[in-house]
Amino acid sequence: MVRNIVVLGGSSHPELVEQMCIKLGIPPGRITLSKFSVGETRVEIQDSVRGKDVYVIQSGCGKVNDNFIELLITISACKTASAKRVTAVMPLFPYSRQPDIPYNKVGAPLAKAGIQKDSYTFESRPGTPAPQPDGAGSSGPPAGQLEHKLSRLSLDKERGPATAPGSPSLTSRPSFLRRQHTGSEIAGSTKRDSQKVVYANGTGGDWDQHRQPGYKQWVAQAGTLIADLLTCAGADHIITMDLHDPQYQGFFDIPVDNLYGRPLLQRYIQTKIPDYQSAVIVSPDAGGAKRATAIADALGMDFALIHKERRPTKITDRQNATMMLVGDISGRVAILVDDLADTSNTITRAAKLLKERGGATKVYALLTHGIFSGDAIARINASAIDQVVVTNSVPQNENVRVCPKLKVLDVSSVFSEAIRRVHHGESISVLFKYD
Ligand SMILES: O=P(O)(O)OC[C@H]1O[C@H](OP(=O)(O)OP(=O)(O)O)[C@H](O)[C@@H]1O
């Protein structure tokens, strides 16, 4: 039994909380989670956490946004109730597929002078969205800044010429923002569609026309915001598993322990897949190659890669990207390894390719996080995959009921051991070791 510790479970995964508490030998802390009729979250903690080491368990699944807010409120409640330390235990980390890098090359402005809409390629790389100095460069400013500055210009115009000492006049503003006035503006209209924009290189036009052709929308990048929200709520420590992008840890200035599901998956291969050494480990995309080769190397197995021929530029395009198999799997068992399956498009399309083109005799898919949103389970049931193995980092009871191909590995021991070690100030590096 671990003393002076409180484990509080959120709404996302009660079974995992229960299993972890059994392994720690303590009852779960008493907490009431409810909602106002408008949908706002209400949290009441019934046990004292004063001076205690508190672990709040919430996985990034189900109603992800609601659960995340619930986690933030619970952390904050513990902090204001004088908890000594609060650790957020997030078996599946939400938003980890949205780091602060422009997402798949979409999101930054492509408004480079001279490029016509039809000449964009999948390899077009957007410029950095920053204002150019006077006369330098040919790119326009980002839309948000431009909109803001234009609205300021409208105000300036309505107020008359700037006369305050030090106030820049219209003509002294950066040349990319110089605006031509249309007749309707002169008549007093401030409608945006009547505004003209002129860039330093002389290109320009109506606002809407101007921003449509070269500008793809700026995709919000949630990475640092999610990290900041957790820290701001009062989290002192994060424990998670198989972050989609391990570099995500860099967004935090508190300790992040990123546990691995790999030992569990490796053990499954060794113990449950007959003659596993003649099977081939396959990564379903380049992003997971490192993860998959690590398992192949550890088990002395061959490795193959599925390459998406074209880098799709939209999330919805991913399903249509052409897939190519690199490696020989003919007449062999293929073991797909990935960090997660969400819609299951990636693994089901990969399995089809492995059997139809590659000549694989059997296809396993081993994943840490089985999110299985929408009709993912139906897709798996109808697919060429013979068996899917996931951990219970998110609830799987309902999925197991409707998917006979699904096997679940338990992560409660790994997380409870991590909690025990963190609580006692012991190293948890042993949990990162592979067999
Ligand atoms: O079940 P699905 O909906 O098909 O999603 C699963 C895929 O999504 C993630 O990768 P992502 O597509 O984000 O690309 P990346 O690995 O290059 O980051 C993940 O690593 C899987 O490969």
UniProtKB/TrEMBL annotation:
SMART domains: Pribosyltran_N (SM01400). Residues 146-160 have a biased composition (Basic and acidic residues). The keyword RNA-binding does not apply. CDD domains: PRTases_typeI (cd06223). One of its GO terms (cellular component) is ribose phosphate diphosphokinase complex. Residues 120-177 are annotated as: Disordered. Residues 133-145 have a biased composition (Low complexity). GO terms for molecular function: ATP binding; magnesium ion binding; ribose phosphate diphosphokinase activity. Keywords: Nucleotide biosynthesis. Residues 6-99 form the Ribose-phosphate pyrophosphokinase N-terminal domain. Pfam families: Pribosyl_synth, Pribosyltran_N. It comes from the Eukaryota. GO terms for biological process: 5-phosphoribose 1-diphosphate biosynthetic process; purine nucleotide biosynthetic process. PANTHER family: RIBOSE-PHOSPHATE DIPHOSPHOKINASE FAMILY MEMBER (PTHR10210), RIBOSE-PHOSPHATE PYROPHOSPHOKINASE 5 (PTHR10210:SF36). NCBIfam families: ribP_PPkin (TIGR01251). Belongs to the ribose-phosphate pyrophosphokinase family. This is Ribose-phosphate pyrophosphokinase. The lineage of its organism: Eukaryota, Fungi, Dikarya, Ascomycota, Pezizomycotina.
